[in-house]
């Protein structure tokens, strides 16, 4: 993965996996970032709830800023948890 992109993801609490991908969580939503040779960065999103499971991919450009990536992560969380009006989960 590109060093600048990896540093940006690390600043958002992502951790590097042995495969070179980066893994992070937004509340109970797991996100794995993998660099795609043609489409930029693929965010593989997984969530397992009490009665449902969700998995999908979202592609983003390689050159997004930390704030833009954080906004995408919040958008993903809100897509999975539309009933949570406060957006990003509090610990």
Describe this protein's structure:
This protein has one domain. The protein has a 5-stranded antiparallel beta sheet with strand order 1-2-3-4-5. The longest helix has 15 residues, at 66-80. With 91 residues, it is of the alpha+beta class. Helix content is 26%, strand content 35%. The chain is built from 2 helices and 5 strands, in the order αβββββα. The radius of gyration is 13 Å and the shape is globular. It starts with a helix and ends in an 11-residue tail after the last helix. The mean pLDDT is 89.
Q: What topology emerges from the helices and strands here?
A:
Elements: H1 3-11, E1 15-16, E2 22-26, E3 29-36, E4 40-48, E5 53-60, H2 66-80
Antiparallel strand pairs: 1-2, 2-3, 3-4, 4-5
Summarize the structure.
By secondary structure, the chain is α+β, with helices and mostly antiparallel strands.
Key features?
91 residues, alpha+beta, five-stranded antiparallel β-sheet, 5 strands
**Tertiary shape:** globular
Low-confidence stretches: none
Q: Please report the number of helical segments.
A: 2
What structural category do the secondary elements indicate? alpha+beta
Q: State the domain count.
A: 1
Largest beta sheet: what is the strand line-up? 1-2-3-4-5
Q: What share of residues is helical?
A: 25-40%
